[in-house]
Amino acid sequence: MLELHSLSRRFGSGDTRAGLGTVSLRIDEGEIVALIGPSGCGKSTLLRLLAGLEEPSTGRALWRGHEITRTRPRHGEIGVVFQEPRLLPWFTVRQNVRFGLGPKPQPGEEPLVDEVLERVGLTRFAAAMPKELSGGMAQRVGIARALVSRPSLVLLDEPFSALDALNRLRLQNHFLTLWEGTGRTLLLVTHDIDEALLFASRILVLSGSPGEIVADYRIALPRPRVRTDASFQHWKERLLADLGLAEVHPFADHVPLI
Ligand SMILES: Nc1ncnc2c1ncn2[C@@H]1O[C@H](COP(=O)(O)OP(=O)(O)O)[C@@H](O)[C@H]1O
Ligand SMILES: [Mg+2]
User: Fold this and answer.
1) For residues 141 and 92, is the Cβ–Cβ distance under 8 A?
2) How many angstroms is it from 49 CA to the middle of ligand 1?
3) pLDDT tens-digit profile of 19-75?
4) Tens of pLDDT along 60-105?
5) Contact of 189 with 205, CB cutoff 8 Å
6) Predicted local confidence at residue 124, as pLDDT
7) 176 Cα to the center of ligand 1, angstroms
8) Which of 68, 140, 167, 241 stands 20 to 30 A from 6 (CA)?
9) How far apart are CA 64 and CA 208, in angstroms?
10) Ligand 2 centroid distance, CA of 19 (Å)
11) Taken in order 149, 5, 256, 246, is the CA torsion positive or negative?
12) Residues 6 or more apart from 95 whose CB is under 8 A from it?
């Protein structure tokens, strides 16, 4: 279980205070949770706290009963995929993925690198350098690096938003296929309502500055999700209304919240 107890992170002071407001919540193992909210409401800050990259101003976060801190991030147990792949340019694809196993991979872990490369369809590019890759391929390397240690919790920060529309659809579908049946826990930050509805068993809406959770929904739509289904559209309108966008683009096909 992931537990957040009055977790917050503030930057600045007085009227200029921003960051993440006070958040308390529990996420069960196996849940796929999407966290949506407008730009600047603290989504990345929340993810960085859970990745042990940031120290909270108040409260604490625990994964499987162990507190996550900067000095004790749960490396290996928690994988992170950022908006941009952040590959090391002087490492090959394979070396970048291997990096996800930490500084001293055990000999028995080597096969995991090849296995995950296969799963993201990059076996043929194992020896390539990052500069030789397309944006979609580079992001798949980032995903492989996060998954190689078989983390029980995966945090994704708008991982598909830098891709063009077609590649975004491809990689979303690919990722969902990878995820199926793993029983792992996923927290996906996105400002894209369609993406949240494609993935999530639960959607949290974060709003305000500093942001707080204003809605928490169970999404029981059958899988695979179909964007054109009436129930999908119903949820979409509801989420747009929560974000104060219902009247702005009621018939838009794809509404990013930027
Ligand atoms: N290191 C930082 N120093 C100062 N302000 C920050 C820092 N990181 C984030 N912020 C501010 O906190 C707010 C939330 O940022 P962020 O979590 O990146 O939002 P989101 O990911 O939802 O767009 C923003 O106003 C941002 O400017
Ligand atoms: Mg962000």
Assistant:
1) no
2) 12
3) 999 999 999 999 999 999 988 999 999 999 999 999 999 999 999 999 998 877 676
4) 999 999 999 887 767 679 999 998 999 999 999 999 999 999 888 8
5) no
6) 97
7) 28
8) 241
9) 29
10) 11
11) positive
12) 88
**Domains of the chain with bracketed CATH:** 1-12+19-40+52-74 (no CATH), 75-158 (3.40.50.300)
Question: For ligand 1, atom 12, which residue shows the shortest CA distance?
Answer: 19
Ligand 1, closest atom to CA 47?
Answer: 17
Task: Check residue 25 and give left, alpha or beta (phi > 0: left; psi -120 to 50: alpha).
Answer: beta
Q: Integer distance in angstroms from the first to the last C-alpha of the chain? A: 31
Cβ neighbors of 37 (< 8 A, separation 6 or more) are 43, 191, 205, 206, 207, 211, 243, 257
Place of tokens 């490369």: 117
**210 preceded by cis ω (within 30°)?**
yes
Largest CA distance in the chain: 57
Whole-number pLDDT of residue 245: 80
With H, G, I as helix, E, B as strand and everything else as coil, classify residue 195: helix
Determine which of 131-140, 172-181, 200-209 has the lowest per-residue pLDDT on average. 172-181
The set of residues, in sequence order, having a beta carbon less than 8 Å from that of 94 and lying 6+ positions away, is 113, 117, 126, 127
Binning the chain into helix, strand and coil, the percentages to the nearest 5 are 35, 25, 40
Residues framing ligand 1 (Cβ under 6 A) = 11, 18-19, 37, 39-45
**Predicted structure pTM score:** 0.91
CB neighbourhood size of 249 (10 A): 12
- Phi first, then psi: give them for residue 193, nearest 5 degrees: -65, -40
Residue with tokens 């007085």: 14
Candidates 27, 28, 21, 17; CA nearest to 6 is 21
* In the block, residue with structure tokens 């077609």: 166
